[in-house]
Amino acid sequence: MALNHDPGLTTRASRVMARCDRLAACTEESGGITRSYGSAALVEAMVLVEGWMREAGIETRRDAVGNLLGRLPGPDPEAAALVLGSHLDSVRDAGRYDGPLGVLVALDAVAQVALSGRRQPVALEVAAFADEEGLRFHTAYLGSSGYVGSLDRALLELVDASSVSLRDACLAIGGDPETLSAGTPPPTALEGYVEVHIEQGPALERLGAPLAVVSAIAGQSRVGGTFTGEAGHAGTVPMDERHDALLGAAELALAAEALASAVPGLIATVGELDVFPGASNVIPGAVRFSLDVRAPDDRTRQTAVKTLHRRARAIAAQRGLDLSWQVVQGNPAVPMDATLSSRLEAAVDAVGFAVHHLPSGAGHDAVVLAQVCPVAMLFVRCTGGISHNPAEAVLAEDVAAALAVLDRFLAAPAEEGSRRERTTAT
Ligand SMILES: [Zn+2]
């Protein structure tokens, strides 16, 4: 691969990897990586990234929710900004790449533009969002919601497990909760948002490819339900006279597996089962279950939920159980912007990789940015598809590939019509 022969990219990829390692040392729980919104560990990580931004000649600021933003100005102060970034917070006992990789690859690519002195048609903004995972306050996307002005001020009153309010956490991270308000547009017009993120799944490894352009972020339905049968003595009630609620739920879980395995793009999981009364010598009288259904297109997901509801009713009828079924959450899929994605595709192709497309089963900051501007995402292969786990890993050569694509992507507007200038990569 030609990339291997570009010592500049190899050096930059090593720097990104080393910085991910450095950020991994910013943690609120020793022996692992945990950085929640407002924590001293996140403050430390942001100060480091801010220093790297300044070193690269990028102007920095914090916004009301405490996001760290770095800007390379455009030709005039009114110019729209192209935003590149991801998040710096983490889940509990996290890996070191989910979030930071996207921030640091973006920072490195924008630093490269700063170094080149090349004139940009738009401002470039590197966003390091302060909360995506929602670990501390159980509200995902605090950072990006604050950035786009869609954060509900009522959330400031939320408290964490130690009764610290979100308002105080916001102050601790350098934010200004009093100026936070829903409906405040971003301080600048946004031309688009591009996020590099580890895949968090095994598809790229299976394809033997380092990168994929994301097609859509899957929509999600969550169902909460209960099968109610009849508890009884496990030793005395004959098998043909039972109304075992757990067997109903087990059958539903298998039906969800069978359906999702048969429909491309569909994912379904029964992740919670609460068995009542929950004793080894009692036939389960009731089982509360969760069902999580995701798909990159909404009709597929909605049809699947209806199909599984029908199936659950049939299982209940056959086993003499009662069924309750509530769809407790339904988030539509977020398609990526076709124009911005095609620019990413062109960049992937130009640096010499096959263009693959993958949907994202996980949510990302791009979900929120999509409310206000076109969004596109680039997935980077991760070892074993593992994420939200200390074993999270990426290859330096894949990071170099992502850097090469972002370089090309950022250079592309200035090179429209001169496709023959493509870098060679064979
Ligand atoms: Zn993430």
Brief overview:
This protein is an alpha+beta fold and 426 residues long.
How many DSSP E strands? Answer: 16
| Assigned CATH superfamily of the largest domain | Zn peptidases
What is the level-2 CATH architecture name of the largest domain?
Answer: 3-Layer(aba) Sandwich
- Using the coordinates above, name the CATH class of the largest domain: Alpha Beta
Number of helices: 11
Name the helicity range: 25-40%
Determine the N-to-C terminus distance.
6 Å
Number of domains: 2
Structural class: alpha+beta
List the ligand species: zinc ion
Mean pLDDT: 92
- Our Rg estimate from Cα atoms comes to 24 Å
Q: β content, as a range?
A: 15-25%
| SSE string, helices as H and strands as E | HHEEEHEHHEHEEEHEEEEHEEHEHEH
Shape designation:
globular
Describe the structure.
The chain is α+β, with helices and mostly antiparallel strands. The protein folds into two domains: 304 residues, Zn peptidases (Aminopeptidase); 113 residues, Alpha-Beta Plaits (2-Layer Sandwich). Helix content is 34%, strand content 22%. Strands 1, 2, 3, 4, 5, 6, 14, 15 and 16 form a nine-stranded mixed β-sheet that branches. The C terminus is likely disordered. The site of zinc ion has 6 residues, from loops.
Detail the topology: elements first, then pairings:
Elements (H helix, E strand, L loop, with lengths): L6 H18 L15 H16 L3 E4 L5 E5 L8 E7 L12 H17 L6 E7 L12 H7 L17 H7 L17 E9 L4 H5 L3 E7 L1 E10 L3 E2 L11 H18 L4 E3 L3 E4 L5 E2 L2 E10 L2 H22 L2 E10 L2 E2 L2 H13 L6 E4 L5 H4 L5 E6 L15 H16 L15
Parallel strand pairs: 3-4, 3-5, 5-16, 6-15
Antiparallel strand pairs: 1-2, 2-4, 6-14, 6-16, 7-12, 7-13, 8-11, 9-12, 10-12
Helix pairs in contact: 1-3, 1-11, 3-11, 7-8, 9-11
Zinc ion binds next to loops.
